[in-house]
């Protein structure tokens, strides 16, 4: 299967589509700079699975890893999440304006 992602948002949304990856991001948002073991601790998945999920998140630019001696620390990278927020804001504006127009139209009817 060929997976052509022409828009960077495609990779971000693909990475965010998995609840375990979202849980990893939530842990990093709460406490940045965790090791893979620290990330895996409270989750019901294996260390190799956490590593594979981190690979996907890193590929989407959502996470970076930094080697410090014998430890590898994981960091949340907020820029891709800002890109998602900006994309969603465009749609929020569209729907808000449309619903406001509909409300005004309904209120104007006797």
UniProtKB/TrEMBL annotation:
PROSITE patterns: HTH_ARSR_2
Stretches assigned to the HTH arsR-type domain: 1-96
An annotated Gene Ontology molecular function: DNA-binding transcription factor activity
Protein name in UniProt: Transcriptional regulator
Cited Pfam families: HTH_20 (PF12840)
